């Protein structure tokens, strides 16, 4: 009877110990699962932040493309933004039997997550600096474009002033009989002799044929429309010369403009004065 009671007591003691151990293990596993949930949440936040960074990279590349178009040879192209950072982290794998190994693995993962967060912070700082540099470049480009526009306006004014002065001078010489139709015809002969071979873009064969017709036409029959056509053709030849880097075309364009000015003063203006 005593032995049975003793055995029952031992069994009760063992059962109690087993229940305590199971409760303790359950608490440890609950703690581990909680830490896993925290790590997964942090990884999800990191992935969201990295996606936002990728979107910012796309916007930055678009802005750089716009800048490249505006610079148009003034500056070398802005270096492309650094390529995407490699994979952030591989998933935690193979949680095995021993609790100690899982805890060590979790500690290592937490350290790596902290390093990744630091790395993302550094990347965001670099992106902010890149955006600041791009804004500065855009401001500088705007300043250069404004200065170029101002220079173009000033050059255009100088060209107009030069043309007006030349026309007034030729008119004065023509009125005094110093510059006559003889000199004008001599200038026309020179322009016809120097007539350049047409190109393919602006100074085409069609333009070339029209210019020959105007130069072969009797100057006494010139109209203001003919003079305007001569100037328009001179503009096309000059444009072709700049794009093809042909100085001879540029110089010929100015000779043609000068002839158009002389023809207007010597042949067209007298007819207009007679009509009045």
Automatic annotation (TrEMBL):
Any Pfam family the entry gives: Tropomyosin
InterPro entries linked: Tropomyosin
Domain of life, per lineage: Archaea
Keyword Metal-binding: no
Keywords: Coiled coil
Coiled coil: 43-168
Descriptive protein name: Uncharacterized protein
Source organism of the structure: Vulcanisaeta distributa (strain DSM 14429 / JCM 11212 / NBRC 100878 / IC-017)
Lineage, uppermost ranks: Archaea, Thermoproteota, Thermoprotei, Thermoproteales, Thermoproteaceae
């Amino acid at each position: 009877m005593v032995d049975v009671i003793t055995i029952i007591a031992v069994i009760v003691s063992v059962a109690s110990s087993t229940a305590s151990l199971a409760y303790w293990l359950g608490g440890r596993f609950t703690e581990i699962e909680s830490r896993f949930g925290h790590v997964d949440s942090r990884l999800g936040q990191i992935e969201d932040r990295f996606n936002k960074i990728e979107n910012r990279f796309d916007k930055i590349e678009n802005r750089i493309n716009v800048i490249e178009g505006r610079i148009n040879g003034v500056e070398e192209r802005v270096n492309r933004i650094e390529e995407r950072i490699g994979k952030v982290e591989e998933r935690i794998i193979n949680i095995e039997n021993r609790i100690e190994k899982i805890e060590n693995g979790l500690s290592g993962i937490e350290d790596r997550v902290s390093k990744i967060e630091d790395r993302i912070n550094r990347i965001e700082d670099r992106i902010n600096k890149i955006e600041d540099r791009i804004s500065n470049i855009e401001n500088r480009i705007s300043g250069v474009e404004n200065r170029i526009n101002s220079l173009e306006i000033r050059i255009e004014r100088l060209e107009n002033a030069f043309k007006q002065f030349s026309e007034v001078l030729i008119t004065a010489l023509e009125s005094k009989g110093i510059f006559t139709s003889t000199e004008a015809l001599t200038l026309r002969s020179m322009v016809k002799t120097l007539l350049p071979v047409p190109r393919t873009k602006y100074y085409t064969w069609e333009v070339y044929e029209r210019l020959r017709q105007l130069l072969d036409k009797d100057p006494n029959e010139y109209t203001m429309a003919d003079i305007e056509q001569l100037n328009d053709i001179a503009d096309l030849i000059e444009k072709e010369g700049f794009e093809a880097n042909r100085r001879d075309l540029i110089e010929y364009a100015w000779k043609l403009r000068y002839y158009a000015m002389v023809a207007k003063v010597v042949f067209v203006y007298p007819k207009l004065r007679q009509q009045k």
